[in-house]
Amino acid sequence: MVVYCDCMKITLIGTGFVGVVSAAVYASLGHQVAGLDIDQTKVDSLNSGKVPFYEPDLEELLQAQLASKNLTFTTSYEEAVSDSDLVIIAVGPPSAPEGQADLKYVFAAAESAAPYLKENAIIAIKSTVPPGTLESTEAIVSKKTKTKFMTASLPEFLREGTAVRDTLNPDRVVIGATNEVAIKTLTELHKPFEAPIIIVSPESAQMGKYTANAYLATRITFINQIADLCAKNGANIQEVIQIIGKDKRIGEHYWYPGLGYGGSCFPKDVNELAAYSRSVEEDQNLLNKITSLNEDRIPRLMELFGEKIGEWAGKQVAVLGLSFKPNTNDMREAPSTKIIPLLLRENAEVIGYDPQALTVADHFLPSSKDLHYKDTVDAAIKNVDVIMCLVEWPEIIRHTFPQVKKGKTVHFIDARNQFDPKKITELGYVYQGIGV
Predict the structure, then answer these.
(1) 189-228: b or e for each residue (b if 16 or more CB lie within 10 Å)?
(2) What gap in Å lies between CA 391 and CA 397, rounded to an integer?
(3) In what side-by-side order are the strands of the sheet with 121-125?
(4) How far apart are CA 107 and CA 93, in angstroms?
(5) 171 alpha carbon, distance to own chain's centre
């Protein structure tokens, strides 16, 4: 049987965003943790204390746990799994062409770990997967081992940019399991977080993760639709948010009018949940509309901005904020990856700036003689015709923008409504926000 003790041996399969953060945090609780990945270069980097992406506080935490000997990384399934009490699958499932989750990497991880499982080990899936995945995983593992094992769903609810804090101080811990030993073991593991622990079925745990992200994406999409109406009738979206936010049923949090949602989770999870709904013949729902509204958001706004600015051709445009949100260098589905190609097609010259994403920008943006990068805000905005503030990095929203030279017209597009329109206008800029 599983031994309930202060120290467990834990394996995290997958050393992406979720895997590395989870491994470092579990190690910080005193557990012996092994991070497992087939990428030797990534493993070598992590063992040397270098995180291959930017996440505040993570590298310091990683280095501290490596020094404590509580954490190590390896490419060997045998080494990582053989003595592990808990094997957590944290690989990132891609989306298939039709939108549904492609589970091949999840199943491959389970199949590879199966021969090395110790008696009564727990396999927990932290990856975002649709209902029914745990049952399929059990069948795959059972074909590869005679060893008794348990399974659970252990969804994560991390936000890039605050992942370490979110993991150490979660709103809730969700355990999707039916085996009492697995439930007790995972409950004991997560007690130090002092958060509500919700015990549900695996299917509910998996649906809960999708539902949370789909709802948050819906809030963003909804407030963008209201912002569009405000732009038509003279209302101010920030004042509207202030009004509705005082309603206890609604709340003031998480209203982000702007260019739509992006990143590695929301677009993917909404698409996968919509695809799942279609697979069970429930396609006439809001989920299948949210994606199209979000995808149409940037082209529509850029057309409106273009009408106010005049044609983009020949304009110098400073794009401030290349990542999809502050405190990360993740550019997956970032507004910049849609706006900059559009500007280049319109024959504009683009100068990009971001505090962290410049090192990865070439992987997400086209190579062009008309696209340049600068490492300061001042260098990026020098002599431009248009400033587009896409992301609320502190380095951007706290920047002291200079007075516009007399006789020059400079348009200032505030895509996150972070600036005071009056102050920006007083500096001589032509201000344009979202729904204000």
Answers:
(1) bbeebeeebebbebbbbbbbbbebbbebbbbbbebbebbb
(2) 9
(3) 71-74, 32-36, 9-13, 86-89, 121-125, 149-153, 173-176, 197-200
(4) 10
(5) 17
- Our CA angle for 151, 152, 156, nearest 5°, is 145
Residue 91: C-alpha distances to residues 14, 82, 129, 325, 409 (Å): 5, 19, 11, 22, 49
The candidate with the shortest Cα–Cα distance to 348, out of 374, 368, 362, is 368
Give the Å distances, CA to CA, from 169 to 59, 188, 434: 18, 16, 33
Instruction: Kindly list the structural domains of the chain, giving each domain's residue range(s) and its CATH number in brackets, ordered by start.
Output: 9-200 (3.40.50.720), 209-285 (1.10.1040.10), 291-432 (3.40.50.720)
**In angstroms, rounded to a whole number, what is the distance separating the alpha carbons of residues 303 and 104?**
40
CA distance 106 to 272: 15
Q: Report the number of secondary-structure helices (H) and strands (E) in the chain.
A: 17, 14
* pLDDT single digits (tens) 277-319: 988 888 888 988 998 999 999 999 999 999 999 989 999 999 9
Structure tokens at 146: 């005679």
Length of the chain measured in residues: 436
Residue 45, burial from CB neighbour count under 10 angstroms (0-12, 13-18, 19+) = middle
HSE, side-chain direction, 13 A CA sphere, residue 357: 29
Helical (H) or strand (E) element with 217: helix 202-233
3-class DSSP state of 88:
strand
Q: Find, among 302, 358, 363, the residue nearest to 335 by Cα.
A: 302
pLDDT digits (tens, 9 = 90+) for 42-88: 999 999 999 999 999 999 999 999 999 999 999 999 999 999 999 99
Q: Which residues carry out catalysis?
A: 265
Q: Where are the alpha helices (DSSP H) in 50-155?
A: 58-67, 77-81, 104-113, 133-142
